Amino acid sequence: MRIRVVGIGSAMVALFLVTGAALAELPRSATLATHAVGSLYNAIGTGIATVVSHHTPMTVRVQPFAGPPAWLPSMDQGETDMGVLTSADAVTSYKGIILYKRPFKNTRILLVGGSLQLGFYVRKDSPVQTVADLKGKRIPTDFPGIPIVGLSSRAGLASAGLSYDDIVKVPVSDLQAGNQAFMEGRTDAGWHAVRSPAVEEANARLGGVRWIALDDSTEGARKMGEVYPGSYPVVAKAGSATGILKDVALLNNDIYLVSSRQLSDDAAYAVVKALWENTKELWAAYPALASWRQQRMASRSAFIPYHPGAIRFFKEKGVWDKTMDDLQAKLLTQ
Questions:
Q1: pLDDT at 15
Q2: CB 152, CB 175: distance < 8 Å
Q3: Which residue intervals of the chain are DSSP H helices?
Q4: What does the pLDDT look like over 32-44, one tens digit per residue?
Q5: DSSP states of 69-131 as a string?
Q6: What is the reported pTM?
Q7: In this structure, is the dihedral angle defined by the CA atoms of residues 248, 213, 297 and 51, taken in order, positive or negative?
Q8: Residue 271 pLDDT > 90
Q9: Within a 13 Å sphere around the CA of 13, how many CA atoms are in the beta-carbon half?
Q10: CA 162 – CA 179 distance, rounded (Å)
């Protein structure tokens, strides 16, 4: 009996030492890049940072930027640890196509989160009902601080057969500036993400806003996808969010939590583990995080490679199989 107790005690000491060593290898702090304060991505990033900071030895600091083009270069060099962006931004920046002049090959997925619905919104009493009705209207354009937004808004117009040539262009720097222009009456419609704090503010200040439908026909979806890779239309149900007064078709894409390839495997593993095991706390942190579910985190529809530390965790959970191995190998060669 004494020998057995000693053996168990030794095993516990060994486990403590191994665990302690693993924790010691984690950085004391990490950065998480998001869009500007007030944006949906900043709120999502803040929720993620809160949960990871509570459940790992790392303190995650949120760093707001105008958009991914402002922080992807520093992530590519390993100076920014993590970031939140759309699948469209991820694939176009990784390949260096469309809006990106060079590829950022050091970006890796930690996990795939929820999906994001984007669309045009108008004042509640506006006569505009669909995207087709925006012809000749004042619309925010350009978005140099976050070019992918300009691409997505053009895709929304394209679903109805419109382009920037068919509207009155009102150049803005980023999403927040676009919403400000809308609240000040300088545009007839805004372009933003459903459930974003900015749209909630517009709804409160203007006595109500209303999302309008893009064309979700087969042809409309094709035109949208040609402009904005990886996007597809979905129907948001009436009452599911502020401004959705009836069922309305919106542009949809996935949201990634990504990291630098230089982030250690142990740190990546710890981040994914914290978010996987504390989904309810994640949902409570911000309403938009309620769609961040375990079954979406290892996605067969991923557009860029996963981080090795994340893969290790997903294999332990049995959600990473040969199909995912094959996808990872394919993505690494692109």
A1: 40
A2: no
A3: 2-25, 40-55, 68-76, 87-95, 147-159, 175-183, 197-206, 218-227, 265-277, 279-285, 294-297, 308-316, 322-332
A4: 999 999 888 999 9
A5: HHHHHHHHTTSS-EEEEEHHHHHHHHHT-TT-SS--TTEEEEEEEEEEEEEEEEETT-S--BG
A6: 0.74
A7: negative
A8: yes
A9: 6
A10: 21
